[in-house]
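Support request, please re-run this one:
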Amino acid sequence: MRKIAKSEYKRRARKAWETTQKTYSRREISSMKSSAAYKAWQTKRIKKAVAEAVAKVTGR
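Re-run finished. Output below.
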């Protein structure tokens, strides 16, 4: 892991945070499929959906 400047780190962190906040068009998704931010967003979305389904089934 190479050392990155603080400003660069902040910029990346903000970008990653923004990717978790918005919804995407189909084209954006296809271009992002490989990126880590997309994978994180995807897993978070799946976990949320699973949790909701479980809650629905158990009637909570």
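The chain has a mean pLDDT of 75. The first helix runs from residue 6 to 21.
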